[in-house]
Write a structure and sequence with these properties.
The chain has helices at residues 4-23, 51-66, 119-143, 170-190, 201-209, and strands at residues 27-37, 89-93, 109-116, 153-157, 164-166. By secondary structure, the chain is α+β, with helices and mostly antiparallel strands. Strands 1, 2, 3, 4 and 5 form a five-stranded antiparallel sheet that branches.
Length: 217
């Protein structure tokens, strides 16, 4: 009972954490691949002579929009913006088949990911990213005076992005929070406190006798 402040503090912290877990809102995610396709007549377009040229073109568009980065990137295609902790915005990346520090690209495409607080916000982010890609590609080909009927085409895969909700299980999150809070509180209550006076009467008398002045002449 002397440690009731510790118990009260543990209960309050656990309750606050439980309220925060129950109030956590889900995040929405969508992904689409923008594939670069050669035109029907590729002779006037130097970008579309070979498949490697399309791969390089996709990389050039991606770098122009997102900028270069020296940070390590994940190789796994399963790593999403949600897994990286992002909660808002979009990202444009070229699929990397190489290592984390040495990139390799063989796909003439750009992957567009978007996250947001609502499905509508995610769809808007995807549309904005695709528009930016189309605009940059058009500008690059216009600088070379490529005829309109000979320009690189873009195709979305899938044609309509599927929005997914990531929210987890509130029941499991609440149970884990309560269990962790209870365990920490129990351990805090079990920690040794300040030691009181010795329970041994003999040691107590010895300690008292040692404080008396020596009367021996």
């Amino acid at each position: 009972m002397r440690r009731w402040p510790i118990l009260l503090g543990g209960l309050l912290l656990t309750a606050g954490a439980a309220v925060w877990v129950l109030d956590a809102r889900p995040v929405y995610f969508a992904e689409v691949r923008v594939v670069f396709l050669p035109p029907a007549d590729i002779s006037p377009n130097p970008y579309a002579r070979t498949s490697p040229s399309l791969v390089e073109l996709a990389g050039a568009v991606g770098r122009a929009l997102e900028g270069g980065s020296s940070d390590a990137r994940s190789v796994s295609q399963g790593v999403t913006m949600v897994g990286e902790g992002e909660r808002d915005g979009h990202a444009i990346r070229q699929p990397n088949i190489g290592g984390q520090w040495e990139y390799a690209f063989d796909t003439p495409a750009l992957d567009v990911q978007a996250v947001g607080a609502t499905g509508e916000a995610v769809e808007s982010e995807i549309a904005d990213a695709v528009t930016r890609i189309k605009g940059e590609l058009t500008e690059m080909q216009a600088r070379l005076d490529v005829p309109a009927d000979s320009r690189i085409r873009l195709q979305l895969s899938p044609s309509e992005p599927q929005v997914m909700e990531y929210g987890g299980s509130r029941v499991r999150a609440l149970a884990g929070t309560l269990a962790a809070g209870g365990l920490v509180t129990f351990l805090a209550l079990g920690m040794p406190g300040r030691r009181g006076r010795s329970a041994d009467p003999k040691s107590d008398l010895t300690a008292r006798g040692s404080t008396r002045p020596d009367s021996t002449p």
